[in-house]
Amino acid sequence: MRYWLFKSEPFKWSFEAQKDKGDAGQEWDGVRNYQARNFMREMAVGDRGFFYHSNEGKEVVGIVEVVAEAHPDSTDGTGKWECVDIKAVKDLPRPVTLDEVKAEPRLKDMVLVNNSRLSVQPVEESEFRLVCELGGLDPKDVMGG
DNA sequence: GCCAACGTTGGC
DNA sequence: GCCAACGTTGGC
After folding, report:
1. Which residue has the least CA–C1' distance to nucleotide C12?
2. Which stretches make up the EVE domain (predicted)?
């Protein structure tokens, strides 16, 4: 099991919108960055991740789960781009802001801090656990296994 | 709204 | 294959 972070501007696609899709989930489409695509290719069904609101909010707002591994992006005509499907699992009772992440020494290596432009990122298990705790969740409840 | 950081494109 | 120009992202 690996852990990830999905970044979206809430104007375009918010965690609320994600939740409306229910357990069927939704394509994480529109990614046109090779690094991000390659990370999605590494994802497995059941992997967990954070949903992060960029620009507006700048905070981790919820937990998501990968429900379909990488497949061609239906919004792409070139055949170059792929995406996974994800579903919303849980809200963070207390969103964890970028400021909080930056203020926590144990999170200083998070990609979110060091490569802020990357829209799909890997998250270390220890980082995942810690952000869950900061957000008011018991990691055991969301780490699936 | 600005701009730094980064990725991509295209001329050579 | 280098690199300047350009576009985009996202924090501030």
Report:
1. A55
2. 2-134
**Whether the predicted pLDDT of A145 surpasses 70:** no
Tell me the C-alpha distance between A6 and A28, whole Å.
Answer: 9
What are the structural domains of chain A?
A: 3-142 (3.10.590.10)
Residues 6+ apart with CB under 8 A from A72: A79, A81, A82
The alpha-helical segments, DSSP class H, found in chain A are 15-20, 34-42, 98-103, 111-114, 125-134, 139-142
Q: Which nucleotides of B are covered by protein (CB under 7 A)?
A: 5-8
Token pair, residue A90, equals 């849980």
Residues A71-121: pLDDT tens digits? 999 998 888 899 999 999 999 999 999 999 999 999 999 999 999 899 999
For residue A96, the cross-strand partners are A60
In the complex, which nucleotide's C1' lies nearest to the CA atom of residue A117?
A: C9
